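Researcher: Good morning. I'm working through a list of sequences from a screen, and I'd like to move beyond sequence-only analysis. For each chain I'm collecting a predicted structure so we can compare shapes side by side. This is the next one on the list. No need for commentary yet; just the structure.
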Amino acid sequence: MLLSEILPHVARLQPDYYATKYRNEYLTYQQLLHQVSCVAEGLKNLGIGPGERVALAGDPCPYLVIAECAVIAIGAIPVTIFPGLASREMNQILEDAAPTAIVYDADHPRIASSLSAPSIAFTITFKPVNGGLSLEDLIATSSPLTAWYTAQPDDIALLIYTGGTTGRSKGVMHSHRAIRKWAFMNPARGGGHNPAKKSLVPNQAHLTGQFILWTTLYEGGCLIYPDSYPQQANEVIDIIEHEQIRFLGTVGLLFRDITALAGNRSREVGSVAGISCGGAPISEKTLQQALEVFPNAQISEVYSQTESGQFISFLSVQECLAEGKLHRLQSVGNPSHMERWGQKPFEVRIVNDSGQEVEQGEIGEIICRSEQIMLGYWNNPEETDKTIRNGWLHTGDLGRLDEDGYLYIADRKKDMIIVGASNVYCAEVEQAISVHPSILEAAVIGTPLPDEGEEVTAVVVLKDKQTLALEDLQQFCGQSIAEYKLPTRLVITQSLVRTSVGKIDKKAIKETMY
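Model: Good morning. Structure tokens for this chain:
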């Protein structure tokens, strides 16, 4: 099913079911379809046509859903922009995507200063501002669009910009064909089959947010919006309790905070039947605690990339425990298990620098292939050719496969420290450090030595009222990793710099070290 077909289909099946809830205000599927159709007609009347880009900027809310669905309805390409970016970063995305129009929240303090891209012919606010064009105006004055655009399967459906941790952000192009292969978009079940579903909507400029948006609409569920962003653990728990949320999609840091807070305050979270968590490795300690806090939930750790478009693999925590194979908690699961979620599994290989497959158990680059991977990077054929070779997506992640086909992430390919003649994978050292009782969170980076080479530097945030010396950390980590992998430098900080999508920004951390 094309993205443009989802909302009309579900609205016919479930017109009176709730599609969105925001600050105690609801939109039914029939109401959402009407508002989307009016905005789509208004955009079409402005002359915006198929293939043109329309930027969308604002914290997740029903206005953003209406705008994105309307853009899809006329065959244009939505470009969602995270409003927490600096003006320079937003402008870089606007310059690269060259949108014809931007739809934005005029009340957001960061966005108004970032509308300087020369391609923008129309600026449309969510609500009326000083007589300018707004979504509310289009809803009130436009007739509903009657003929929704029919895209070709390989047309670009979404343009999602990466976090840009290694340089300028790149626009990842995903096709209608790829998206309709996503997990839970199973055509055998048809659309609108799960109207009891309620989903908390995260950052809509990220792959996770897009996945939750479109799969919830496909299933005929209700999109629930917190009052503010970024989501805070206490508000998420409040919504779980009040709405009796059954399925929760989240990312590593927030998942850790939700688990800790819900456990400490004995909150009522028993309604949660399933949790999927990705974005960053999850410690075994957090997973074990989550099993106690969410006793009725099947907990899964997922592995994906913006470029992969969907889950490459997932790990069932309960399954590891039931089979008595606790070492698998350090993996991201078995790629073949994606069939359980109604998704055709990726082909996954581990290769060396020459592109040859390594022996089972050896570390190499993870590459994968499926219909779900991106078409490429927008206006960037050079980077596309580096990343997709002979149909295989080169993830840039280092990992290994065990004898049962479980995938273990060792590190980012470029996130490696050479100590003497040996490779030190930062993720392995971070795993050893993170379980220290005085440490809240940690990042491991390579910092240059006075003459040549690098040393292993641990940058850590301590728990309240805790202290830590390098010698104590080395002694602790020496129990689980080789001596040459031990940190030789310790930096204690109040917080770790993060990217716009919540991942630890090692590039920025390194810059503070020099």
